[in-house]
Design a protein that fits this description.
Layout (H helix, E strand, L loop, with lengths): L1 H8 L1 E4 L2 E10 L2 E8 L4 E5 L11 H7 L4 E5 L19 H15 L4 E6 L1 H12 L4 E7 L8 H13 L3 H15 L5 H12 L9 H8 L6 H13 L15 E6 L5 H10 L4 E5 L6 H4 L1 H17 L2
Parallel strand pairs: 4-5, 4-6, 6-7, 7-8, 8-9
Antiparallel strand pairs: 1-2, 2-3, 3-5
Helix pairs in contact: 3-4, 6-7
């Protein structure tokens, strides 16, 4: 079955880009990854945790015009399902190890890593663990650099501040049904749509943006296991990110409810270069693609020529 899958999807070309699907074996299964373009390698890490890699495929395609963009189906998502699928195989340590495995498979000694949201958290975690392997970090709307009660409260309050009275009532009513185990699929979908309103700038675009954000169904089990592990290890990059001395660039959105994480991150890494995009929430690559790609091209040029 796996051989048939690889034979039928190994290589296909669409107008403007070519994609190659490959995989590597590790003790608990196979890690699949997509490659776009040729040239200097760039690892592309999608958000979540648990979201499909396809959420950032448009970014990978854009990068593939000038570089070799490598988009992994992170362990616990897509085809990369470990056996067993539990806390022993889904955790931060193994997620970091998978990037190392990918670099070894592709023969890459140093790499530029792009990460969005959770992908930025994973990118920084890898840089902290293997600073010698990272040429530069390019982070789009990064998530937490550490888990703290204050950060989580700020995050939730920012979301609430971006929702209207009726939206808050809908969210709270549905949340009670979900917690009581009385919600159906439509309830869960409406709850998710309502919460996502806080993450975008133009609320009128919610349905078209939802189609991009959830281009494929996320793996909730992976998300739960990973978040549980981050809590268990008291995730805090301020303790070891200083091991990485290379450049960090952040592409952020002015209207992102998570933008305060970027300011907090800059406190522990004052040398971070910031590029802000207006009229966009947490997904500037969808809301302002032209502006985002323009900044991305500029940032990547500087990252690649970095000695």
């Amino acid at each position: 079955m796996r051989l048939l899958l690889l034979l039928t999807t190994l290589l296909y070309c669409l107008p403007g880009h070519c994609q190659q699907l490959d995989s590597l074996k590790y003790p608990n299964g196979w890690l699949y990854y997509h490659t776009y373009g040729k040239g200097t390698p760039v690892i592309v890490l999608s958000g979540g945790p648990g979201n499909s890699c396809l959420q950032q495929e448009e970014v990978a395609i854009e990068l593939g015009k000038h570089y070799r963009a490598i988009l992994p189906e992170q362990r616990g998502t897509g085809l990369s399902i470990p056996v067993p699928f539990d806390s022993t195989t889904i955790n931060l340590k193994e997620a970091v190890a998978d990037i190392q495995r990918l670099l070894q498979k592709e023969g890459i000694s140093r790499v530029v890593i792009y990460g969005h949201s959770w992908g930025a958290m994973l990118a920084m975690s890898f840089a902290a663990a293997h600073p010698e392997k990272v040429k530069a970090l390019v982070l789009a709307n990064p998530g937490y650099y550490k888990f703290s009660a204050d950060f989580m409260t700020t995050h939730m309050n920012n979301l609430r501040a971006r929702l209207g009275v009726s939206d808050l009532e809908t969210m709270e009513t549905l949340n009670r049904k979900i917690e009581a185990g009385k919600a159906d699929g439509k309830d869960s979908a409406l709850f998710n749509r309502t919460v996502r309103l806080a993450y975008i700038y133009n609320k009128a675009d919610i349905d078209s943006l939802m189609a991009k954000i959830y281009i494929a169904k996320p793996n909730v089990r992976m998300q739960t296991l990973m978040v549980t592990d981050l809590q268990r290890v008291h995730f805090d990059l301020s303790k070891n990110l200083p091991r990485y001395k290379g450049p960090i660039t952040v592409i952020g959105s002015r209207q992102d409810p998570l933008a305060f994480y970027t300011y907090e991150l800059k406190i522990i890494r004052p040398d971070i270069q910031l590029h802000w995009i207006q009229s966009a929430g947490h997904f500037p690559m969808f809301e302002q693609p032209a502006a985002f790609n323009q900044v991305l091209e500029k940032v990547m040029t500087a990252a690649v020529i970095n000695p």
